Fold:
Amino acid sequence: MPRNELLVFRILNTLRRWRAHPLEERSLLAEIARMPDTEYNVEIVRAHIHVMLLQGLLKQVAIGEQRQAYTLDWAGYDYLESQ
Structure:
């Protein structure tokens, strides 16, 4: 899967706006879908989230049975500061 830097930025920037609380996956997907010029399907966004978790850009937070939420990890903050 090629890395889409715009999508990475949009995911991180969305989570930065919610930094006080983890953002549930379905809410994150809905926020990304509402952005202008968005042509990403759910599987592409989930694949990017998975890679971002492995790279330390995001942290996963369990908020219930089979419900996941995400928040920025330190590398995610560093990425946004460099933009």
